[in-house]
């Protein structure tokens, strides 16, 4: 496990699915709730291509993007100020724009919902989306398998413990999983309302995966370890160890997985606040995110593991009636967008 100066997060090489990798991942997920993974299958070229696509999309006229507004399914274009991730702490919505693609089928990489025709009218653009979506799903499943091994999920007659999550994340069943492009325009203004680019929040799902680019830093976590806001740096690709491959990918645990494990895996608060250097250059930030969720009907009963069982009265161990993954997500989305339930 590598550590670099100024990086509060572990970098875990996930090339092999084995006990020692699982333990490293588990340690990071139960402490900071955030980490980096290397040894993934995204090449530098693929990552550059998807960032280029996202940039070109956001450069399209506002009148075009707003023809696909985000709705109650969390799918579509979220305009500047349209999303307030921290409704208690901030009055205005975040100064960012986003495109969410939901209701994904991971065999095809396609959404069952309409996406902007700028993507669908060009097979090359569509292929960038579908390839990235499928690879994100595969990476999230690998991470969930490693977490299952780390949690020592018990085997049952039907299923091996390490496959416990996979059976609840079937590729063709409906889930809350979301693929997202984000754009935070550069602005030199130091108005405190404008400096926070994405309000403090925790993610809703199970595992979040995030690409970011050099010189566009801004992600910060409220570390459960040091109880302070700490910056998540950009970590460059280790091209000696992984020739041609992209940089380590940011991974974090969301509320649903924390709930499912009685709070053992940490869903850490984070926000986007540009560092002085980025603020001064007026540089934009783009990020590409994948939120992995179990199938809608998955029942959030505590995961069958001795360590989880030993934690009484928290998360899924507290509630006597199990809720579904869909019920869990709907309650969180209602708060973020001000939707009535
Ligand atoms: O852009 C980022 O780095 C953070 C995005 C994020 O936290 C989110 O969309 O939930
Ligand atoms: Fe987030």
Automatic annotation (TrEMBL):
Signal peptide limits: none
Molecular functions (GO terms): metal ion binding; oxidoreductase activity
Domain Fe2OG dioxygenase per the UniProt entry, residue ranges: 174-294
GO biological process: small molecule biosynthetic process
InterPro entries reported for this sequence: DIOX_N, IPNS-like_FE2OG_OXY, IPNS-like_sf, Iron_ascorbate_oxido_reductase, Oxoglu/Fe-dep_dioxygenase_dom
Presence of keyword Secreted: no
Keywords (A to Z) from UniProt: Iron, Metal-binding, Oxidoreductase
SUPFAM superfamilies membership: Clavaminate synthase-like (SSF51197)
PROSITE patterns from the UniProt entry: FE2OG_OXY (PS51471)
Name used for this protein in its record: Fe2OG dioxygenase domain-containing protein
Organism of this sequence: Scheffersomyces stipitis (strain ATCC 58785 / CBS 6054 / NBRC 10063 / NRRL Y-11545)
């Amino acid at each position: 496990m590598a550590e670099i100066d100024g990086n509060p997060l572990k970098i875990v090489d996930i090339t092999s699915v084995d006990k020692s990798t699982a333990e490293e991942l588990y340690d990071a997920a139960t402490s900071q709730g955030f980490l980096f993974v290397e040894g993934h299958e995204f090449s530098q070229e693929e990552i550059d291509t998807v960032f280029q696509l996202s940039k070109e999309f956001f450069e399209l006229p506002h009148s075009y993007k707003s023809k696909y507004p985000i709705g109650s399914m969390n799918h579509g274009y979220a305009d500047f100020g349209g999303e307030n991730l921290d409704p208690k702490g901030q009055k205005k919505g975040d100064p960012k724009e986003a495109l969410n693609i939901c209701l994904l089928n991971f065999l095809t990489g396609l959404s069952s919902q309409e996406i902007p025709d700028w993507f669908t009218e060009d097979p090359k653009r569509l292929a960038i989306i579908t390839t990235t979506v499928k690879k994100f799903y595969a990476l999230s499943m690998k991470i969930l398998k490693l977490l299952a091994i780390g949690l020592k999920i018990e085997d049952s007659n039907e299923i091996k413990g390490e496959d416990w999550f996979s059976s609840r994340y079937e590729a063709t069943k409906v889930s809350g999983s979301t693929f997202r492009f984000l754009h935070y325009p550069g602005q030199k203004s130091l108005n405190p309302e404008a400096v926070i680019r994405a309000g403090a929040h925790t993610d809703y799902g199970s595992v979040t995966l995030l690409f970011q680019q050099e010189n566009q830093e801004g992600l910060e976590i409220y570390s459960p370890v040091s109880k302070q806001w700490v910056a998540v740096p950009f970590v460059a690709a280790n091209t000696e160890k992984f020739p041609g491959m992209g940089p380590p990918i940011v991974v974090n645990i969301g509320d649903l997985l924390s709930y499912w494990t009685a709070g053992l895996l940490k869903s850490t608060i984070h926000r986007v606040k540009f560092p002085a250097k980025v603020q001064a250059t007026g540089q934009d930030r783009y990020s590409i995110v994948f939120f992995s969720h179990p199938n809608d009907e998955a029942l959030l009963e505590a995961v069958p593991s001795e360590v989880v069982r030993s934690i009484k009265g928290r998360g899924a161990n507290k509630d006597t009636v199990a809720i579904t993954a869909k019920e869990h997500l709907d309650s969180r989305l209602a708060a973020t967008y001000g939707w009535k339930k």
